[in-house]
Specification:
The chain is mainly alpha-helical. The chain has a 3-stranded antiparallel beta sheet with strand order 1-3-2. Helix 1 runs parallel beside helix 8 and helix 2 packs across helix 13.
């Protein structure tokens, strides 16, 4: 293998970790229930998984930031992180304005219950606090379903996302103009939006990782190999985060595997980008890669704060009607916080394993 193709191959191997994470998720959750008729228990479980994903994202974000700080220094590193954070929040805001598809939580002040009073097809189930095995929660026949309101898809971007992620809970109905309108369940639209934000954020994050692998391999092949293995471990977790909402939305193994593999291919694309921009002569200037990593850490923190945590709260609230709103909100936040901590611990463990790989190989 030539010296010019080796960095590309190693970046491809590192990116394959994303697809490997998707495979692991498909094994752990073999049959997700339909999004448009989630049971209250399954909705709550998905919320806990989203909170755990947020914790993993925060752990990875912290790891990238602390990796960049020794080179960039605190002022520059913080500046790059804040720029990345605000940029991602802006993208999320634009997406929200384009889709008009935020579904509301299921509590007494929710518009969902106002729809119910107006005769919409909404059935709400009050969840109990008893412990239930997660595998049972994922069973499509584990309990009765909660059906949420239907919403007309009026945004072309919304339609694009529904097609991209293979959302199956859409139907076509005649409209007043004699044409056909697409209608989707609000659960589906909310999950498609979450899928897109997470997918694009982690795709952007993979670019500088590919550049890093390319430049490291160009200067030290053995160090490049060990860095590839470390990034591979990171990408397994990231692949699970990307695949989770995709799997619930499309329920298509082939689509989930294809899209997660495509996400991982942003790593070798980063290598191509490094070559196009002049390789080591341009990108490897002191602090340049580290500044990109600090910016990416901000992007990942923004995804956790602006998308995954609110999504976790929303889906856990959909687990049932609340009677004592204030007390229930406190309980929900405690649950979300607990699962975020689980995610942080899990992400920290994987990063520790990656560091162990680098130290063990001692290149």
């Amino acid at each position: 293998m030539t010296s010019s193709s080796l960095p590309l191959f190693l970046a491809l191997v590192a990116g394959a970790g994303t697809a490997l994470g998707a495979v692991i998720l498909l094994i752990l959750i073999p049959s997700p229930p339909p999004v448009n008729t989630l049971s209250a228990k399954s909705a709550s479980l998905f919320g806990r998984l989203q909170a755990c994903s947020a914790g993993v994202m925060l752990a990875l974000s912290s790891g990238l930031f602390h990796e960049a700080i020794p080179t960039t220094g605190w002022p520059t590193g913080l500046f790059c992180m804040v720029v990345g954070f605000l940029l991602m929040l802006g993208i999320e805001k634009l997406l929200a304005n384009s889709s008009h598809s935020h579904s509301q939580p299921n509590h007494p002040s929710s518009p969902h219950l106002q729809d119910l009073e107006e005769g919409a097809n909404v059935s709400v189930i009050e969840s109990d606090n008893s412990s239930t095995d997660d595998a049972a929660l994922l069973s499509p026949t584990s309990m009765s379903r909660t059906t949420f309101p239907q919403q007309h898809i009026t945004s072309p971007f919304e339609s694009f996302l529904m097609n991209m992620f293979g959302a199956s809970a859409t139907i076509s109905t005649p409209n007043n103009n004699g044409g056909i309108s697409r209608v989707a369940n609000t659960n589906t639209i909310a999950m498609v939006r979450s899928s897109f934000v997470t997918y694009m954020g982690l795709a952007i994050h993979n670019l500088p990782e590919g550049v890093s692998v390319a430049l490291t391999t160009a200067s030290n092949v053995r160090l490049g190999v060990s860095l590839c293995l470390a990034i591979l471990l990171h990408n397994v977790l990231e692949g699970m985060i990307v695949a989770l909402p995709l799997w619930y939305t499309s329920r298509s193994r082939s689509r989930v595997l294809f899209l997660t593999l495509l996400n991982g291919l942003m790593e070798p694309l980063g290598v191509v980008l490094a070559w196009c921009l002049g390789g080591a002569e341009v990108i490897a200037k002191p602090g340049r890669i580290e500044k990109m990593l600090a910016g990416v850490s901000g992007i990942m923190a923004a995804i956790a704060y602006g998308e995954l945590v609110p999504s976790a709260v929303e889906w856990i609230e959909k687990g049932g009607v609340v009677v004592d709103v204030k007390g229930s909100r406190r309980q929900i936040h405690i649950r979300v916080g607990a699962w975020i901590i689980v995610g942080i611990v899990g992400g920290g463990f994987v990063m520790a394993c990656a560091d162990l790989v680098l130290q063990t190989l001692d290149f």
